[in-house]
Design brief:
Blueprint (H helix, E strand, L loop, with lengths): L8 H14 L7 H8 L3 H16 L11 H14 L7 H9 L1 H21 L4 H15 L12 H4 L5 H9 L12 H22 L1
Length: 203
């Protein structure tokens, strides 16, 4: 969707909805796509809506009743019961101030990055890279496979902090027995992010 948005906005709309129905995080780049298609946003949204209806149609009725409210309730229950796992910024906010503060921090930072990317009209691939990397910093759970979201974009933006994290995040599988390994994952990541930010500020 991010790659096609410039030349094929309708395909971008369809791809964005299909991605969002596969993994929820893809919805965070939807505002970037709508901004990038500009005057063609209506056709992109229309194609996306039709795509969503067609793809979800088989799941509307699992039995004799309408199942979408049941699926939404199950999703909400799952999210409420999910424990904190391999989290960085959310984990710190949760430990110091509670779950509500962690959720507010996560939503505020993610929204700020989305708004900034849209207002500055960043290239869609760059905006998607920034949004998805922010999510990895603020989510309450960061399983190693979550980094697969970012790997395709690292081809275009091979930045040292995220190359390191992509290599280090499999250590999360050992956290139940060795919780100190979370420091090996995140201290170098934030140090590299600080170093990179300092260089960009000086330049």
């Amino acid at each position: 969707a991010l790659q096609a948005v410039g030349k094929r906005p309708r395909w971008a709309g369809a791809a964005a909805v299909a991605a969002g129905m596969t993994q929820w995080f893809a919805w965070t780049v939807a505002p970037v796509i709508l901004v990038a298609v500009r005057r063609r946003w209506r056709s992109a949204m229309a194609v996306g809506l039709v795509t969503g209806i067609l793809l979800s149609l088989p799941f509307w009725f699992f039995s004799t009743r309408f199942m979408l409210p049941v699926l939404l309730r199950s999703l909400r229950s799952h999210l409420a019961a999910a424990p904190v796992y391999n989290a960085s910024l959310y984990g710190l906010a949760h430990a110091w101030f509670g779950a509500r503060a962690g959720a507010i921090l996560a939503m505020a930072l993610t929204a700020a990055v989305i708004v900034a990317a849209c207002l500055r009209r960043l290239p869609p691939l760059r905006a998607g890279f920034l949004i998805l990397s922010t999510l990895l910093l603020v989510l309450p759970q960061v399983h190693p496979w979550f980094v697969l979201w970012l790997l395709p974009l690292l081809v275009f933006y091979p930045e040292a902090p995220w190359l390191y994290f992509a290599a280090a995040v499999p250590l999360a599988y050992a956290l139940p027995r060795h919780p100190h390994l979370v420091w090996v994952e995140y201290v170098p990541l934030f140090a590299l992010l600080g170093w990179q930010g300092g260089r960009q500020f000086r330049n």
